[in-house]
Amino acid sequence: MNEIGGVIPVLATPFDERGEVDLESFDCQVEMAIRDGADGLAMFGLASEYYKLTDRERQDLLHRLVQVAEQKIPVIISVTHHATEVAIRQAREAQAAGADAIMILPPFFLEPSQAAILEHIACVSAAVRIPSILQYAPAQTKISSEILASLPVSMVKIDAVPFAPAASTLPSGCLRLAGYMGLDLPDAVAADCRGCMPTASLAPQFRRLWDLLQRDPEQGRQYHASLLPLLQLMMRSIEFLVCCERSEEHT
């Protein structure tokens, strides 16, 4: 976990005109994110459109990412399946492929109980030796403060604004990452956030923003304010964000 932090872009899935995954474009995206100063790379988040991928496409992208990253920076693979047994399989596949950590998106289909959510997180986390990160996304899954206080993981990505209230419910020593396109990243950093996970097209801007917030918080806040209209526009919906991401890739 000590290696995970800073700017960790969530990679997009490039599709060609026929709807097939464009692996060559994916390779370029990975290489560009590394050149742009990313401290890690994440795949199969909402911005990756994981819900549109076949099992084979997911496996191809997983192996391609690990291969192209070449252990230069940590690779984090999201485990998103609602069925615990299948999620365990995804987690083990990520570990076997060479991922450095998994990120567990709790199940939300058919509104599972809080006990079922906690059991899912615990079982998936225990199934691998690599670190586990919880993706806490209240828009998808409501998790009680009691569950958050007893999480069997050592790092949580918080996809919520404001950041601080959710962060305050986590156990002492639990590390925090800021999601939700960093809409309140200056406050998250002030609340001891360890890193952020923007979309890949904005990796250069978030590299600058993160560095400014570390060495000169006031200047960082000013730069964040200049980015905020764009960030708010992109976060209108996940499909709109994906459209913006594709537009950025071609400009």
List keywords for this structure.
251 residues; alpha/beta; 8-stranded parallel sheet; 10 helices; 12% strand
Question: What is the compact description of this entry?
Answer:
The chain is α/β, with parallel strands linked by helices and 251 residues long. Helix content is 45%, strand content 12%.
Shape: globular
Side-by-side strand order of the widest sheet:
1-8-7-6-5-4-3-2
Q: Main beta sheet: strand number and arrangement?
A: 8 strands, parallel
**Oligomeric state of this protein:** single chain
Number of strands: 8
Q: How much of the sequence is in beta strands?
A: 5-15%
Radius of gyration: 17 Å
Classification by helices and strands: alpha/beta
Low-confidence stretches: none
Order of helices and strands: EHEHEHEHEHEHEHEHHH
Average pLDDT, to the nearest integer? 92
| Tally of individual helices | 10
Helix content: 40-55%
Distance between the termini: 35 Å
How would you characterize this protein structure?
- By secondary structure, this protein is α/β, with parallel strands linked by helices.
- Helix content is 45%, strand content 12%.
- It contains 10 helices and 8 strands.
- It has helices spanning 23-35, 55-69, 84-97, 114-126, 145-148, 163-168, 185-190, 203-215, 217-234, 238-249; strands spanning 6-7, 41-43, 75-79, 101-104, 132-136, 155-158, 175-178, 195-196.
- Strands 1-8-7-6-5-4-3-2 form an 8-stranded parallel sheet.
- Helix 1 packs parallel to helix 2 (55-69) and helix 3 packs parallel to helix 4.
- The N and C termini lie far apart (35 Å).
- The mean pLDDT is 92.
